[in-house]
Amino acid sequence: MAITLTDLLDNPTLKLRALGSSTSTVGTPIEWVAVTEVENPQPFLSGSELVLTTGARLATADAQRVFVRQVKRAGAVGIGFGTGFGHDAVPAPLVAEANRWSIPIIEVPYQTPFIAVGKLVADALSAEHVAELEALLAGHQALAQSLLTANQTLGSGLPSLLATLQSMVGTDVVLEQFQAKVFSSLPDAEPNDDDWLPVPVPTGKRDSCTLWLRKPFRDAGIVDYAKSLISLELANQWQRRDAGRHVAGQVIHDVLRAALPAADISARLRGIQINPAEKNLMLLVQVPDKKFALLSGIALPPALGAGITAVVDGEFLVVLPAAVGDPVQLARHLSRYLHGAGIPASVGVGGAYTQANGLRWSYFEAREAAGRGLDVNEPERLSLTSLLLASEDVPMLDMATETLGPLLEFDELHGAELMNTLASYLQLNGSLAAVADDLSLHRNTVRYRLGQITELTGFDPAVTADRVQLWLALSVRKLN
Fold it and tell me: Which residues contact 167 (CB under 8 A, 6 or more apart)?
C-alpha cells in the first residue's frame, strides 16, 4: 500500500516533525520523493511528490516564499526541510507561506538522511506494485478458469466468464454482438455512452462486438485481459457454429433429396436435435453472394436460440419447433438482426409439418416465399410447384431445362427478351395490353414474341395446359 506523510511522521526511526498548520494532504499517497536544491523546482515535478530540500539556495525570505508557491503549483503533497545544513531551523517565512497555501511542512533532522525517507517511500511503492501484479495475475487466472471449466461442462464458458468479470469490476456488464445482447447481468439494460463505458471486442470477424461496463467500476487492468478472452471465445464459437452448420446441412441436404430410407433420416434428424415426430418449420435466408460467408458462423439472436441452423448449397436455414412461437415474428426479428449486422437478407417462412417429408415441404415453401424478395416473406398455401419440387420422383429441373432451353439459347444469340416477355405474360394473366405497358412495347410486338415462344418451345402460352407447363418451368428455374 502507498505511504503517506502521516505514515512517515509515525515512523519513530525517522524522527520527523510536522510544522505549520496545514494537514490537507497528510493522507495523500506519496508517488515519489524528489530531492532538490533549485529555487524553482516546478518544471521537474509531476505531482504527488514529497519535495525534500536543505534550502541551500533559499537564503532570503522572498526566495523561500517563491519556493513554496512553486511546489504548491506543481501539486506536491508536502515539503520536507532538512535542518543542520544551511539552516539550523526551518525558516519562519517558509512555514508561514506554506500555511497560507495549505501545504504541509515537515522538519527532517540532520541525523535523518534524505535517502532513508526515499527508501521507505520506494519500498512502499514497490510492495504496492507487487500486490497489484499479484492481484491482476489472480484475476487473470480466475477469468481463465471460469472460461475453461464452463467450456468443459457446458460447451460455452462466456456467461461464466462475464459473471466472474462482473464480480471483479463491481458493476453490471452487457455483451452485445450485432446490436443484440449475448449476455446481460442487468435485465432490460439499455447501455448508452453517458452511463456506460463501451469496450470494442475484436474477433477477426465483422461482428461489431461491444462489452459495456456500467460506470463507475473497478478496473486495475482486468478488463483488457477479459476482452482478450472474450475475443478468443467468440472466435472459437464462430468456428464451432460454422462446423456444426455444415454437419447439420449435410443431414438437411439428405432430407431434401430423400437420399436415405425414412428410418435412417429420422435417426439423423434426432442426431442434430430435430425431433421429426413434432411439427417443425423452416426459415430460409437469402443474401447476396458476397455476404453469405458472414452467415456461416454468425450467432443468432437469443429469440431464435431454440433453432437448429444449417448451411445447404449456399442457403442458410433455421429449423424451429412450431411450439416456439409465431414464426413470422421470429423471421422479422431475424431479418432486423441481420440488417443490423450489415447483411441485407430476405427471409422466407415455411409451414409447420411433421416428419422428414414435412420438413421438405416447409423448405420449398420457404424457398418459394423468399423469392418474393421482401425482408420477411410469409408462407402461402403449399403450391403445386412446391409439391412437385419436393418430390424427388418428378424430374422438374430436367423438364424446365428442356422446355425453356430454346428460349434461353435464342435470347443469348439475338437479345430477343423472350424469357422476360413470357414471365410478364404469365404474371399478368395473359393480358396483351398489360404486358405491352409493362415492357414498353407495342401490342403487335408482344404478339410476335408470343408466336416465337410457341414456335421455339412447342407450347402456346394462350392455351391453358401449355401455360401451366410454361409456368411450372419458370417457377422451377427461379427456385434452382
Answer: none
Angle in degrees, CA 249, 253, 254, rounded to 5: 125
Helices 222-257, 114-154: inter-axial angle, 10-degree rounding: 10
Render 83-124 in DSSP notation, one character per residue.
-SSS-SS--HHHHHHHHHTT--EEEE-TTS-HHHHHHHHHHH
The residues facing 32 across adjacent strands are: 49
417: alpha, beta or left? (left if phi > 0; alpha if psi -120 to 50): left
Residue pair 417/408 in contact (Cβ under 8 Å)? The answer is no
The last residue of one of the domains, among 330, 363, 390, is: 390
Domain boundary pick from 351, 371, 390: 390
Specify the residue for cell string 415492357: 439
Nine-digit cell string for 130: 507487487
Residue 143 covered by a domain: no
Strand partners, 183: 175
- The C-alpha cell at 36 is 532538490
Cell numbers given for 224:
483488457
Residues 258 and 382 in one domain: yes
Q: Measured between alpha carbons, how far is 293 from 207 in angstroms, rounded to an integer?
A: 12
**pLDDT (tens digit per residue) in 87-126:** 999 999 999 999 999 999 999 999 999 999 999 998 888 8
Kindly state the DSSP code that residue 55 receives in the 8-state scheme: -
Residue 56 maps to a domain: yes
Strand order through the sheet with 280-286:
308-312, 315-321, 280-286, 346-349, 376-377
pLDDT tens readout for residues 158-206: 888 888 889 888 999 999 887 677 788 888 888 988 999 999 888 766 5
User: Taking a C-beta distance cutoff of 8 angstroms, is the pair 474, 466 a contact?
Assistant: no
H helices of 282-395, in order, are 289-292, 327-340, 355-370, 384-390
Supply the CATH number for residue 437's domain: 1.10.10.2840
Number of domains in the chain: 4
**At which residue does the C-alpha cell 421438405 appear?**
360
Is there a single domain that holds both residue 340 and residue 448?
Answer: no
Alpha carbons 172 and 330: distance in angstroms, whole number? 28
What whole-number distance in Å separates Cα of residue 284 and Cα of residue 374? Answer: 12
Parallel, antiparallel or unpaired: strands 49-53 and 32-35:
parallel
* Ramachandran angles phi, psi of 67, nearest 5°: -60, -45
Instruction: Name the burial class of residue 254, with classes exposed (0-12), middle (13-18) and buried (19+) by CB atoms within 10 angstroms of its CB.
Output: middle
